[in-house]
Amino acid sequence: MISLLIAFLWITSTFTEVYFTEEFDYTWRSRWVEGKYYEKDGLQGKWGWQIPLYYNKKELDFCLSTIEDKKYYQISCDMGKTFSTKDKDLIVAFTVKNQEETRFAGGYLKLFPEGIDQEQLNTQTPFYLMFGPDWNGKLNNMLRVLIRYNNRNFELRSHHACPPDKNTYLYTFIIHPDWTYEIHLNDQLERKAPMEEEFDFVRPRLIPDPNAKKPDDWEDEMEIYDPSDRKPADWDQPMVVDDPTDVKPEDWNETTMGEWKPRRIANPLYKGTWYPRIIPNPKYKGPWEPPLVPNPLFEKEKETYHFSKVRYVGFDVYQEKCGTLFDKIFIGDDWAEYRAYLAVTWDPFHRAEVEGEKKKSGSADVRDAKPMGVANLNSRQEREKRRKEEEDRMIERKRKELEEEARRKKLLEEEEEEEEEEFEEDEEDEEEIDVDEDISTKKEKATAKKGKSDEKYEL
Question: pTM above the 0.90 mark?
Fold first, then answer.
């Protein structure tokens, strides 16, 4: 009864702060305009519709779907009015479901300004905000947030993994007037932080005072030379001196050989350049830094998040593998209205999907006890832990490779040394043989020569 009452109130009430909602049904083509920009290249994907395997009500759980592989998909809807987000919350939410776990595809939603050509929508069309999952393989699935400022796209620096499985997930992004943002997955908070910590174009709140100057008496040297230290009187000695043991030769002829000079040797008394000893600086005050003052440009930077002429919402993605389902879009500025919307659309569908998966597998779905279960597995702490474990494994593997390489190198050097020793021994043996051969040859020649001489004398 309570859920029916909430549904009745939500349907019959007029929420002035709800800019746009969409639960796709059989009439969606009358509201949404498909892009034609990539038709000339044969790369324009066609949109279709599909009802998920598990649903609560067909009329509420009907989904927009990509139906062709390796295509660009553009589609947009006029929200019926142009609105500004100045001094208001901005809540952007929608559901995404993959038909296959492994894919290379974008699944993000964009907010566009007034004046765009819906049929010519493409990746270069200016937008205010881009938000949603991007699947680039099992190790590189991430949730992307881009804000366009001064014709440049600035992306959220922190990385948030998005689930790659076949379940339906509700993605929510919120910008608050106090300049903080929130990311929710399945209606559970995943991340909340100041905007200036996450986007490169944001100027800091405080900056060093450009007019400040370091005082003349500021001591920023931790150590100094001792001013009371004095150089010893016998310190300065020449680097080289005459060798006192060198004696002039008796046969030295200065007329022909010039003046004799003893050789020069290093002076054993030479001590080098003298420096006073170093002591701690008693006046040390630490590094000087100018005082911080409010940044006059900081407040002006807040205008970045005042999307002044929001008019269209749409999808602009490329999909290597199709089959992504989109549904339940909410764009507004009131948290209570957002919660009421989820109570009618997301909550019953989510329960139906969890129950269906539970019956199919015969075991409880992790989302049944923990709606944020998948997100918890992909939380910042868990991702950092897994990254550290992977780094440790890589370091250990590299260490073992280096040890094995060093072992092989050592064995190779030992083999080379043994071969050199054997080669040297062989050379020595050959030299000995050669010497013996030379001696025997000389003896034979001498004997032959003597024999000839004897024959001569005999004649």
Answer: no
CA angle 361, 363, 367 (to 5 degrees): 100
Four-residue CA torsion sign, 17, 20, 25, 31: positive
Interval 13-63: pLDDT, tens: 444 578 999 999 889 999 999 999 999 989 999 999 988 888 888 777 889
C-alpha to C-alpha distance for 452 and 97, rounded to whole angstroms: 114
Q: Which of 74, 85, 98 lies closest to 17, judged by CA?
A: 85
CA distance 163 to 376: 10
Q: Which residues share a beta bridge with 66? A: 47
Question: For residues 142 and 171, what is the distance between their CA atoms, to the nearest angstrom?
Answer: 12
The answer to whether 32 touches 20, Cβ cutoff 8 Å, is: no
10 Å CB burial of residue 194 (0-12, 13-18, 19+) is: middle
Residue 188, amino acid: Q
Among the listed residues 368, 354, 330, 345, the one whose alpha carbon sits nearest the alpha carbon of residue 6: 345
Give the alpha-carbon dihedral of 158, 164, 165, 171, to 10 degrees: 40
Beta bridge partners, 207, equal 293
At 89, give phi and psi (nearest 5°): -70, 150
The confidence score (pLDDT) of residue 448 equals 56
Q: Which of 411, 432, 297, 365 is nearest to 54 (CA)?
A: 365
- Please tell me the distance from the alpha carbon of residue 101 to that of residue 453, in angstroms, as a whole number: 108
